[in-house]
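Format notes (please read before filing issues)

Several people have asked whether sequences and structure tokens are stored in separate files. They are not. Every record keeps both together, in the order shown below: the sequence lines, then the token lines. Line labels are part of the format and must not be stripped during preprocessing.
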Amino acid sequence: MTALSVDGVPQKDLDECIEKLEDLARWSREKKLDRWAFRAALLKALYDNADAYFVEGGGDFREIAAFDNGVATVLRSVRDVKNT
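Then the structure lines:
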């Protein structure tokens, strides 16, 4: 499992989500599904999730983009530590 920790995100929930997505990614590879189909499906799920967040009175795309950029920074940091 990827050693990932994000401020404000419950670690238990994050670990469970990562494990489930790793299982899904493994399934897609075993089925030899097109990687772009898999990625498109993930992006659709994220887009649908954003719509639900907005309906519930959440923020806007700018807030989601800021969060995504923060997570990307953490992922790069994890990768860089592994490569040193």
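For reference, the curators noted about this record: Residues 72 and 78 are 10 Å apart (CA to CA). The radius of gyration is 15 Å.
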